[in-house]
Structure formats: C-alpha cells, structure tokens
Amino acid sequence: MNKMLKKDTFNYPGLDIPYELKEIRGKNVSITVYPNNRVVVRHPRRVSKSFLQNFMEERKTWVWDQYKKNKANNPQKTNFKNGEILPIFGQNRKIKWFEEKESKLIDTEIIFSNKGFRSQKGKENKAKSFLKQILLEEITPIVDKTASKLNTKKYTVKVRTMKSLWGSCSPDNDLTFNLGLVHCPDFVIKYVVIHEVSHTKEHNHSNKFWEIVNKLDPEYVKAEKWIKTNGPKMLCYLN
C-alpha cells in the first residue's frame, strides 16, 4: 500500500498542522477538524494519492479557518501541572500536586496525590484515574435509579475518554460514558446518563425514545442547549 494511505500522522499540505489518515469502509472521503484541532482525513482503501491531495487542497482554506477558530476559542489540552485550571462538575478548580495519600476535591482546588509517581506520564495517568473514579461515583447512582424506573435488569457501566460522543449504549446494554462529563455541571451529567439508559428500552431516537427521556428529565432541552454551546470546549481538556 502507498505510504500515503497508512493510518499515520502527517503535516497537512500547505499548512503547518498535523493530520491523521484513517481508512474506512464507506465510499466517501471526508475531513473532520475536532474542537481540540485534531484533524482526521477519512478515506476508502481504494483511493489514489492524487485524489486525496486534490481533495485536501480544495479544503485547505476551510481546514485552516476551523483550526484558527478552535485555537482562539477552545481551551488547550490539560497537562496536569500545578496551577492549571480544570473545570470539575461545572466549577473551575486549580490543580495542585501534593504528597497526599489520596487525591481529593477541596473547595476550588483539585488535589492530586503524586505519592509513588514521579514521571509526568505516571502523574497524568493517576490524575485521569481519579477523574474516572469521581465521575463513576457521580453517575452510577443515576444509572441505577434510571434503570430501576425502566425495569432494565441487565447492564454494565464504564467510563473512558472519547473524542466526540458523550455516551453510548450497545445492543447488549453496555453503557459507556465520556470521561469529559467530569467537566460538566450536574444537570448535564444527569441528562446524558438518562439519555443513554433510556436506550436500554429504545435503541433508537424515535418519538417513543424521546417520550421516555422527557418523562425522566422534563428539562432535558436545557442540557442539550448547554452541550451544544459548551460541549466542544469540554472535550478539549482530556483529548
């Protein structure tokens, strides 16, 4: 296969920004510029190098405009260093590292324990583990309560970092939530959880599905509006 078509990172033609190539099963070529300025060019396997180059050249101005807009309006990825500001459950908190036994939230600060960790990568992994822990503690009671109301008896819950989705529900009722929810206010977390658990009864977005959501969370539109306005920024901190 031509090197140009491998799943790898390159510099965008004519722009000093990286992009990724991803093979897909579909027939169309597309370009996505994520809020954190991750640029992904998706293409079917059987596409020529010249076609891709022309396609990208034609969209260079659009990509650059999106890149500049994101850089000006969206936060940078968190490095988990002392003094950085990180929103937790809708409240800005200052990151501090101490030789504490356990990480914890205190007023306007998030205290990360660096006990046993010295490398930056190790500290980042420990910080994300703590964020995952507090998010699971927040969402699990909502999941269980909602599942009980819907008489959903079999389901699993996990949290992981995702690029764009806030949550998902598999056909087997495996519920997955974006770690980025840890940055969102309570009413948004509640809505996303209710939305996904409602899919255990309706694996679609039919009128019946939205009737279930509305019954469980009558103010869900407020959360959707918040996500539309603020969601892209929240997804930048950990991606």
Describe the fold and architecture.
The chain has 239 residues and is α/β, with parallel strands linked by helices. The protein is built from six helices and eleven strands. It has helices at 49-58, 60-73, 120-149, 186-198, 207-216, 220-234, and strands at 9-11, 18-24, 30-33, 39-44, 85-88, 91-98, 104-106, 109-113, 156-160, 167-169, 174-178. The protein has a four-stranded mixed sheet with strand order 1-2-4-3, covered by helices on one side. A four-stranded mixed sheet has the order 5-6-8-7, covered by helices on one side. It has a three-stranded mixed sheet with strand order 9-11-10, with helices on one face. Helix 3 packs across helix 4 and helix 4 crosses helix 5. The longest helix has 30 residues, at 120-149.
